[in-house]
Structure formats: C-alpha cells, structure tokens
Design goal:
Structural class: mainly alpha
Radius of gyration: 19 Å
Oligomer: single chain
Number of helices: 4
Order of helices and strands: HHHH
Shape: extended
Largest sheet: none
C-alpha cells in the first residue's frame, strides 16, 4: 500500500521521526477510543456483550462488554504510543540498543530500572 511504502522510506531516512509519527498516530487512536467509550457511556452506542474472539484475545472476563473491549484496545494503543515515543527518544540520545539496559548480574532482574 501507499502508506507502507512511504513509511518504509521514512524509516530508512529517519527512524527517529518514523517512531515519533507512529507515536502520534497511536495517540490519535487513544483519543478515538476515549470518544468511543464516551459514546457507550452516554448510551449512544449499545454496550453489548463482548464477542468471544475479543474475550479470548484480550483475556477478558467471559461476562465482558463492548466497553471492556474498547478499554483493553485503548490501553494497548497507549502502550504502542509510549513505546514508539520511547524508541524515538532513545534514538535521539544515541541509545538505540536495548542491550545497554540489560543487567548481566544473574541475581538481579535483567532490565535495569
């Protein structure tokens, strides 16, 4: 598709910018899902039982509703947003390798906090 071609070119030219763009796109998704939740809460969209496939994928309670699904999806989009902004920040700081954050002491967690 056109987006894939343009994004691939952008990533080759500037990975930092590409991650930042994805972070902003994910932020728009978070905003959209927040509005979706508002529509459910206002009663303009029926809060139906969650589809089985969504319950299984998101590991939701079997009694979950559409609102629960949208909350799970929004949280996932927020994680993608934060991850992409984090990667962009790391590239700017010339700390692209995640191995730099690994702790080699086997008695400690692998990631330095």
């Amino acid at each position: 598709t056109g987006f894939f071609a343009v994004f691939s070119l952008l990533y080759m030219v500037s990975p930092r910018t590409a991650h930042r763009v994805v972070g902003y796109l994910e932020e728009e998704a978070v905003t959209s899902y927040t509005h979706f939740i508002g529509e459910i809460d206002a009663g303009r969209i029926e809060n139906v039982k969650a589809p089985e496939i969504a319950v299984a994928y998101w590991n939701l309670d079997p009694e979950s509703t559409l609102r629960d699904v949208v909350l799970a999806v929004r949280a996932d989009e927020a994680l993608h947003r934060d991850t992409n902004h984090h990667f962009s920040d790391r590239i700017r700081a010339k700390r692209e390798s995640l191995f730099e954050d690994m702790d080699t002491d086997s008695n400690k967690p692998h990631i330095k906090y």
